[in-house]
Design a protein that fits this description.
The chain is about 10% helix and about 15% strand. By secondary structure, the chain is of the alpha/beta class. Bound molecules: 2-acetamido-2-deoxy-beta-D-glucopyranose (NAG) (7 copies). One 2-acetamido-2-deoxy-beta-D-glucopyranose (NAG) binds next to strand 18.
Length: about 375
């Protein structure tokens, strides 16, 4: 018994040292992470505007209805700098504003106003923030008067029903936040007028079924966040979103990823499938995702990874397959991942870890490993110490 504990300790210590000293010193945030304002820390994925000060300096929560802070950084990353920054008036340019709301330029902020319906204001409003209100249903043509809206923030309401024509006429909308509501389904065509929409944030709802036609019309969408919903499967999710760049499906109930799931997602650079129930991935599931830079498959139920799964992912920088019951990996499993900088294989009990697996990964600067078992330690130490 004592011998076993001792050897475990030895392993953990040498692994920890390796992890830290493989990190680059002046690395900016890794792909999928963003700097917290002027602090040196990085913000993981999409913690912006979620009501929690994840950064510690409010950088991810500041100006959520604005073009600064975290959203601004995201725009910079995607090369779409805001057009109107700096030219906004500090006075209100809307004629009518309810007493519960604040107004600046053509932007309306009615957060926490206890509204059960959307307020009546001048039709030239470009931004409407109705966070933390009591909206329950988005009716057809609800926003039809407000065709100049570019940003619409509806998070933290009680929205259960979104009628098919709820967003009709919003041809200028670029950002739509519907997170933290009670939406369980979205009809095909519900977003069909939103040709300029770039971000669609649907996290923390109860969405259990969507079809590719749910997203028809979204020809400009780059960011789709479906974090923490109840999806069990999707079929060719990108079919109607040819520009989709970033897809976050963390925390759903996906069981199978087949060769159709991401068939049209050829522009994706970030795909997050963490915390699902995936047990099977078709060997060609990622075949057309040639631009992928980050792939997160961690915390699933994957037992087998096809030797060909990663063959076309020559641009991949970051791969996370931690916390899966993977039985074995081929020695050449990672061979095509020439550009990989970060590989996470925490909590995997593979018996055949071999230094040959990592030899083609010349650019690896970060590796996260934690071994749970005793008897395989020696072979791994061999890799670390040579
Ligand atoms: C990494 O290496 C540096 C010297 O290059 C050393 O000062 C530092 O303590 C090491 N980090 C860890 C976590 O051991
Ligand atoms: C970051 O910026 C704020 C003001 O924008 C300033 O008060 C703070 O000192 C800065 N922090 C650092 C670490 O530069
Ligand atoms: C917006 O519309 C209101 C009337 O609805 C008008 O008084 C105001 O001047 C308009 N503002 C701009 C900037 O067009
Ligand atoms: C909104 O869209 C219409 C039609 O596409 C366009 O004429 C109008 O200028 C746009 N308004 C803004 C504020 O972009
Ligand atoms: C998906 O895989 C199945 C068999 O695994 C194959 O019959 C089918 O043609 C493939 N579909 C596409 C679009 O490649
Ligand atoms: C990989 O995934 C695990 C579990 O989801 C997470 O704890 C870890 O931080 C991830 N690694 C990286 C480098 O993001
Ligand atoms: C490794 O990284 C360097 C610098 O980022 C790059 O020039 C080189 O092409 C990379 N190697 C491969 C095999 O991609």
């Amino acid at each position: 018994m004592h011998v076993c504990v001792f050897s475990l300790l030895l392993c953990s210590v040498s692994v920890a040292l390796t992890v830290f000293n493989m990190s680059e010193e002046h690395d900016p945030c890794p792909l999928g992470y963003f700097p917290c304002g002027n602090l040196s820390s990085c913000l993981p994925q999409l913690l912006h505007c979620n009501g929690v000060d994840d950064c510690g300096n409010q950088a991810d929560e500041d100006n959520c209805g604005d073009n600064n802070g975290w959203p601004h950084l995201f725009d910079k990353y995607f090369g779409m700098p805001s057009k109107d920054a700096g030219t906004k008036s500090t006075t209100c340019l809307l004629a009518l504003v309810p007493a519960e709301c604040q107004c600046r330029d053509l932007e309306l902020d009615c957060n926490g106003a206890h509204f059960k319906d959307i307020p009546m204001v001048s039709t030239n409003a470009t931004m409407m923030s109705l966070q933390r209100n009591r909206l329950r249903k988005l009716n057809a043509d609800m926003f039809i008067k407000y065709q100049n809206l570019q940003k619409l923030y509806l998070q933290h309401n009680r929205i259960k029903v979104v009628e098919p024509y709820a967003f009709r006429g919003l041809y200028n909308l670029t950002r739509l936040y519907l997170s933290h509501n009670r939406i369980s389904s979205l009809m095909p065509g519900v977003f069909q007028d939103l040709h300029k929409l770039e971000w669609l944030i649907l996290e923390n709802n109860k969405i259990h079924h969507i079809s590719s036609l749910t997203f028809s019309g979204l020809s400009s969408l780059v960011l789709l966040v479906l974090l923490n919903n109840a999806l069990t499967s999707v079929d060719d999710i990108c079919l109607e979103m040819p520009r989709l760049n970033w897809l976050d499906m963390e925390g759903n109930q996906m069981e199978i990823v087949d060769n159709r799931t991401f068939w049209s997602c050829s522009m994706l650079t970030v795909l997050v499938l963490q915390r699902n129930r995936i047990s099977h991935i078709h060997e060609q599931a990622f075949f057309l995702l040639r631009k992928l830079g980050e792939l997160d498959l961690s915390s699933n139920r994957i037992e087998k990874i096809s030797p060909d799964l990663f063959v076309n992912l020559g641009d991949l920088l970051q791969l996370n397959i931690s916390y899966n019951p993977i039985q074995e990996l081929q020695v050449d499993h990672f061979d095509k991942l020439h550009k990989l900088k970060s590989l996470s294989i925490e909590g995997i009990e593979i018996g055949n870890i071999h230094r040959r697996m990592f030899e083609p990964l010349k650019n690896l600067t970060h590796m996260q490993v934690f071994l749970f078992f005793f008897f395989k330690c020696q072979s791994f130490n061999l890799y670390l110490q040579t």
